[in-house]
């Protein structure tokens, strides 16, 4: 049977687009199926950080994977600028995590210590700084800042431009994109898969599920158990203001266009389209205590999104044991990992499949008790 | 520049722009009155300093920011013009941020 495509990627958010772009640039014939703007796009909740510090406690492989992605980012950003024709405002000046009490600072330092005590994590430098040192480095930081951590590997990007560039690059490299293409059914056939959408069916040799919160439903069609759940994240953005913060913080960043984003709340949730003002109030209050000048800005928008969380918060990359050539790719940090997905993971898939160094990311890790 | 339709308009509404006396019509928004008065730049952008003017006239683009009666960064296209309003352009970097 001759299939229409080498790969069908289900999902057109940051994860699906990164994988599809990465496959397409390797010369494969790729179809990206996107539910469209009605989707519960987790990507909408992104904070646009390319972030390394503090990631990977509990799974050393995730720490190295995040680090690898961050190291691939400069080349990835340059490549996307070339193929898309515009700049992504990617930068890597290092980043801060600020705290407002001594207790917070101690807990933060202890958790970073535990992260680095894990054997396989290649050490990278994270500075733990007191309030005065923070104010020396970030002159706008307010008197309530008790300290913080700094890591030179951290950075950020304009995520709207990242999203657009990956889509533009995908099409430019010959990829086929379908909008309004919610996949109803996936049927395994002779040497491939048939994906049924409202506008007709498509066939592909292999299929990558990158559909965020829809992966559990889709995975069940190809023998993949994908235990992910939604976590609500809220973001506040202010009016544009003169540049005052030239490096990203874990919860506050000024974009290249001047707006200040305040974010990174997390709460268990399953209802879409809901916003909790109380959470915004806490986020805004903490932000103003960190940078008093924010108190003089108007907020122009706030929004929420359902982000994708696996049971332990780490990504799931796996090939179906029963359906060869069917993969799931899902994670929480679609911006940070975009470079790894496009430059490394897509390469593995193009070359035949996930190698054993991806075993740690298999959803089999959730089945230990059944196996032991 | 913009011209009003040749219909008998509403009542004249006096206001000031950077202290200069101007006149709009009843029913104008601040942004509409500025455009009708021939104002080409209502602000410069906060980061690049580029000149901007009202654009969408329906509250989504935020190009029409002006200071109205001392309050900075108001969307001129969403504020009905009132007699005696003191409107100020926001030229130079960013708005004048008022202490709160
Ligand atoms: S002109 Fe677009 S928001 Fe006012």
Task: Provide keyphrases for this structure.
A: 372 residues, alpha+beta, D-Amino Acid Oxidase, Chain A, domain 2, 8-stranded mixed beta sheet, 5-stranded antiparallel beta sheet, 18 strands, 30% helix, globular, B: 100 residues, mainly beta, Ubiquitin-like (UB roll), 28% strand, binds FE2/S2 (inorganic) cluster
Structure description:
The complex is a heterodimer of chains A (372) and B (100). Helices cover 30% and strands 25% of the residues of chain A. Chain A is globular. In chain A, strands 1, 2, 8, 9, 10, 11, 17 and 18 form an eight-stranded mixed beta sheet that branches. Chain A folds into three domains: 5-49 and 160-227 and 312-371, FAD/NAD(P)-binding domain, CATH 3.50.50; 95-152, no CATH class; 229-310, D-Amino Acid Oxidase, subunit A, domain 2 (D-Amino Acid Oxidase, Chain A, domain 2, 2-Layer Sandwich). In chain A, a hairpin with a 2-residue loop joins strand 10 and strand 11. Chain A is built from nine helices and 18 strands. Chain A has helices at residues 14-24, 60-84, 102-117, 131-137, 159-172, 215-221, 277-290, 338-350, 368-371, and strands at residues 5-10, 30-33, 49-50, 95-99, 126-130, 147-151, 155-156, 176-178, 185-189, 192-197, 200-209, 228-238, 252-254, 260-263, 267-268, 299-310, 316-319, 326-330. With 372 residues, chain A is an alpha+beta fold. The radius of gyration of chain B is 13 Å and the shape is globular. In chain B, strand 5 (65-68) and strand 6 (71-75) form a beta hairpin. The mean pLDDT of chain B is 89. The termini of chain B are far apart. Chain B has a single domain (12-88), classed as 2Fe-2S iron-sulphur cluster binding domain, sarcosine oxidase, alpha subunit, N-terminal domain (Ubiquitin-like (UB roll)). Chain B has a five-stranded mixed beta sheet, with helices on one face. A two-stranded antiparallel sheet of chain B has the order 3-4. Helix content of chain B is 7%, strand content 28%. With 100 residues, chain B is mainly beta.
